[in-house]
Amino acid sequence: MSVFGLIIAGRMVQTDFTALKEMEYMIEIQDAESINHLVIFLTGLSPLPVNYGGSIYMSWTPIGGERQWNYLGFISNEKPSALFKIGQLTKHTQQQNPQNFSFNASNINTNIFNNSAVHSALIGVKVEPMIEILRRNENEETSTSEQLSSLALFPEKMLRNFVNFMHSFAVSFPKPNTTQYEEYVPAKSVTEWYTNFKRRLEANPNFWKTLP
After folding, report:
1. Sign (positive/negative) of CA torsion 29, 86, 38, 131?
2. Distance between CA atoms of 97 and 17, rounded to whole angstroms?
3. Are 50 and 41 in contact (CB under 8 A)?
4. Staple partner for 14: which of 5, 6, 65, 178, CB 3.0–4.6 Å?
5. pLDDT in the model for residue 70
6. How confident is the model at residue 102 (pLDDT cuts 50, 70, 90)?
7. 78-84: long-range contacts at Cβ-Cβ below 8 A with a sequence spacing of 24 or more?
8. What is the pTM of this model?
9. Domain boundaries, the chain
């Protein structure tokens, strides 16, 4: 039994983490694409070193290219278990947000890195000082906050750009039987705006940030 354990709903508890070296552990999850949540916990076999915690990472089996890792969170002696939602952590997300490190595979008896099934995933635990883990968490929270801010700002800037573009093509016509005028926009202007905006977005996904 390992220091770490893994719980997936509807499956047997797994405690067969492979020790890569003193501070790194790994386990393979079969049929990972059907999993929404998992729990990593300390089995109680032995506590982690004082002021240390276990950073949890996940990696999908790559189809060509290098293996990438996504940071999920951490556990510690004070927080001996944690629930992680992985249902939305797709292979595409992993490619967009890789972590700048890899686990040491030199001590694995079977080549789990290269022989894992296509639909499987690896869970890695890296035991490291809590000060480093907390610093990483702060960076992750800042990054998430910035992403949420961008998600809220994008539609506002896009719609403002759309309205301004339409106004530049507006033509006034008198209303029947009144002295009032109504503004109209040619239908082709909508198509033109959409085509231009899409082209610019494909060329530079962040161009919208420069819009007024």
Report:
1. positive
2. 25
3. no
4. 6
5. 86
6. low
7. 79/53, 80/41, 80/42, 81/39, 81/40, 81/41, 81/42, 82/39, 82/40, 82/41, 82/56, 83/37, 83/38, 83/39, 84/37, 84/38, 84/39, 84/40, 84/56, 84/58
8. 0.60
9. 4-145, 151-209
Residue whose tokens read 């819009």: 211
Q: How far is CA 38 from CA 119, 139, 202, in A?
A: 16, 23, 36
Q: Which amino acid makes up residue 198? A: K
The C-alpha R_g of the chain, in whole angstroms, comes to 26
Residue 17, classified by CB atoms within 10 Å of its CB into exposed (0-12), middle (13-18) or buried (19+), is: buried
Answer with the residue of higher pLDDT: 38 or 110: 38
**Phi/psi at 83 (nearest 5 deg)?**
-100, 130
Query: Which residue bears the tokens 């990593």?
Result: 40
Q: Give, rounded to a whole angstrom, the gap between the first and last alpha carbons of the chain.
A: 59
